[in-house]
Design a protein that fits this description.
118 residues; mainly alpha; 0% strand; elongated
């Protein structure tokens, strides 16, 4: 006698709507906390977003599975040149801040791209 398998429950067969809500919630959280950034950091983010918008295309290296570290470092140097020297911050500190903000923006864009592909 052939053994029948029971039908798969609904919640296992389809992605949960909560998943999309979580994604939207994360996006809202990110936006909320970005509004609380200091003014100086917001200026940095504006420049970073402008630079990334110019290179944001399907075949851009920021979407490579493992983006090249040297290219990312060069990109951070480009952003650094576009931002004026701060009186109260060393250039190294400024460089590190730009790198962190740049990596975070790239990660966010990669996440958005992945969610559109689903």
């Amino acid at each position: 006698m052939e053994k029948r398998s029971s039908p798969m429950p609904y919640f296992m067969a389809y992605s949960l709507p909560e998943e999309k809500n979580n994604e939207a919630g994360r996006r809202n959280d990110r936006e909320y906390f970005r509004q609380m950034y200091p003014l100086q950091v917001k200026r940095y983010i504006r420049v970073i977003v402008e630079v990334l918008n110019r290179m944001d295309m399907e075949e851009s290296y920021i979407y490579d599975e493992y983006p090249d570290k040297i290219r990312l470092e060069r990109l951070s140097e480009i952003v650094l040149r576009l931002i004026p020297v701060e009186k109260n911050m060393s250039r190294d500190t400024q460089r590190n801040l730009i790198r962190v903000l740049l990596w975070e923006e790239i990660l966010e864009r990669r996440d958005r791209k992945r969610s559109r592909e689903r």
